[in-house]
C-alpha cells in the first residue's frame, strides 16, 4: 500500500501519496552499491558539518543523482539510529521529488538559465519549511548557463547555515573555476566496463579517429540517425574518458589517449564538450554538431599523442 501523508503549509493542508518503501529504495539504489560504500562513509562524516556546496563528479548520471538524493535524505532523515533509513516520511518524499525543501534543477533535458535560478535569491533567506536542511541540487550542472552560474556565485557569497547546494557533473572541469573553488568535491569511481556494446563501439571509433584522422566521415550510417540526446550521450562518453586519466584501473582506448594530455588540454576539451552541448540546446543540427566536435577534438589531440 502507498503511504498517505499530510503536511500543512500556511492555512492549506495537502494530502499526497508517498511511494512505498521498496519504490523509494529503487530510486536510491544506484547509490547503495558496495563499490560506493567508502563514498557513503565519507558523506556520513561530512554530514556532521556539511559544506555549503558539494560537487559530486564521476560515476554515471544515475549514480550522481542517486548519491545527491541519498545525501539529502541523510541530512533530513527523521529516523533514529542509522540514517538515512530510506522509509521515513522525509526519505520517501525526497525519493519522489515532492519534498518542499529539496529543490532539483535538472540539466539532463535542457540548459539551466538565469530565469530558473533567480527565484533562489529570495528563497535562500528563508528557513526550511519542514526539513532540517534545505538542499538545492543542480543535476548535470554542466548545463548551467554563464549568467545562471554567475547568479549562483552571488548567492554563495552569503552562506546560509540551513541551505546546502549539491552539484553533479561528469567532472568538475565542466563548471566555472570559481564555482569549483567554493565547494568540496567527491569523486565517484568510474567503471569503463559499465559501457554497453554500442558505447564501446563509439569510444573505439572516436579513439581511432583521434589517432589516425580517418574512418569518421564514412560512419554516416551511425551518425545520421542520432538526435540531440544521443549526441549529448556521445559527448558524455568523451567526458567519462577524461576522468580515466585519474583512475589507476584499466583504461579504455579513449581514456588512454587522454591520459597523455596535460590538465590544460583536458580543460579545453571539457570546454569543447560544454560548448557543443549548448549548441544542441539551441536546436543546431545534431549530426553537424557531432562532426564539428570530432574535428575540433582531433585538432586539440592529434599532435600530442
Short description:
This protein is of the alpha/beta class. It contains 14 helices and 7 strands.
Could you explain the architecture of this structure?
The protein has 305 residues and is of the alpha/beta class. It has helices at 21-28, 37-46, 61-76, 89-95, 114-117, 120-123, 146-156, 177-181, 197-212, 220-223, 228-243, 253-258, 263-281, 286-301, and strands spanning 3-9, 12-18, 53-58, 102-106, 134-139, 163-169, 184-188. It has a five-stranded parallel β-sheet with strand order 4-5-6-3-7, with helices on one face. The model is unreliable at 1-13 (pLDDT under 50). Strand 5 (134-139), helix 7 and strand 6 (163-169) form a beta-alpha-beta unit. The chain contains 14 helices and seven strands. Helix content is 47%, strand content 14%. It is globular, with a radius of gyration of 21 Å. The termini are far apart.
Q: Give helix % range.
A: 40-55%
Order of helices and strands: EEHHEHHEHHEHEHEHHHHHH
Our estimate of the beta-strand percent is 5-15%
Alpha-beta classification: alpha/beta
* Uncertain ranges: 1-13
Q: Specify the oligomeric state.
A: single chain
Write down how many β-strands occur, each being a DSSP E stretch of 2 or more residues. 7
Please state how the strands of the largest beta sheet are arranged side by side. Answer: 4-5-6-3-7
Largest sheet, in brief, is: 5 strands, parallel
Outline:
globular
Spatial gap, N to C terminus? 59 Å
Round the mean pLDDT to the nearest integer and report it: 83
Radius of gyration: 21 Å
Helical segment count: 14
Amino acid at each position: 500500500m502507498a503511504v498517505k501523508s499530510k503536511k500543512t503549509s500556511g492555512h492549506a493542508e495537502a494530502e499526497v501519496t508517498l511511494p512505498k518503501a521498496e519504490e523509494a529504495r529503487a530510486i536510491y539504489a544506484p547509490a547503495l552499491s558496495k563499490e560506493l560504500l567508502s563514498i557513503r562513509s565519507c558523506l556520513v562524516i561530512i554530514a556532521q558539518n556539511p559544506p555549503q556546496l558539494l560537487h559530486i563528479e564521476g560515476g554515471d548520471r544515475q549514480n550522481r543523482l542517486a548519491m545527491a538524493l541519498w545525501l539529502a535524505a541523510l541530512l533530513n532523515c527523521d529516523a533514529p539510529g542509522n540514517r538515512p533509513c530510506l522509509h521515513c516520511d522525509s526519505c520517501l518524499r525526497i525519493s519522489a521529488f515532492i519534498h518542499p525543501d529539496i529543490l532539483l534543477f535538472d540539466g539532463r533535458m535542457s540548459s539551466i538559465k538565469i530565469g530558473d535560478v533567480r527565484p533562489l535569491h529570495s528563497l535562500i533567506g528563508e528557513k526550511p519549511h519542514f526539513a532540517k536542511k534545505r538542499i538545492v541540487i543542480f543535476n548535470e550542472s554542466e548545463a548551467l548557463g554563464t549568467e545562471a552560474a554567475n547568479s549562483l556565485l552571488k548567492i554563495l557569497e552569503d552562506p546560509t547555515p540551513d541551505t546546502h547546494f549539491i552539484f553533479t557533473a561528469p567532472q568538475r572541469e565542466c563548471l566555472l573555476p570559481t564555482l569549483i573553488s567554493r565547494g568540496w568535491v567527491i569523486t565517484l569511481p568510474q567503471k569503463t566496463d559499465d559501457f554497453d556494446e554500442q558505447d564501446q563501439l563509439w569510444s573505439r571509433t572516436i579513439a581511432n579517429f583521434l589517432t589516425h584522422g580517418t574512418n569518421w566521415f564514412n560512419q554516416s550510417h551511425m551518425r545520421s540517425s542520432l538526435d540531440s540526446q544521443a549526441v549529448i550521450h556521445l559527448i558524455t562518453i568523451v567526458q567519462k574518458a577524461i576522468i580515466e586519466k585519474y583512475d589507476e584501473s584499466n583504461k579504455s582506448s579513449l581514456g588512454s589517449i587522454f591520459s597523455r594530455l596535460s590538465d590544460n588540454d583536458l580543460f579545453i576539451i571539457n570546454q569543447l564538450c560544454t560548448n557543443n552541448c549548448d549548441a544542441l540546446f539551441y536546436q543546431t543540427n545534431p549530426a553537424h554538431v557531432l562532426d564539428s566536435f570530432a574535428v575540433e577534438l582531433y585538432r586539440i589531440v592529434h599532435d600530442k599523442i
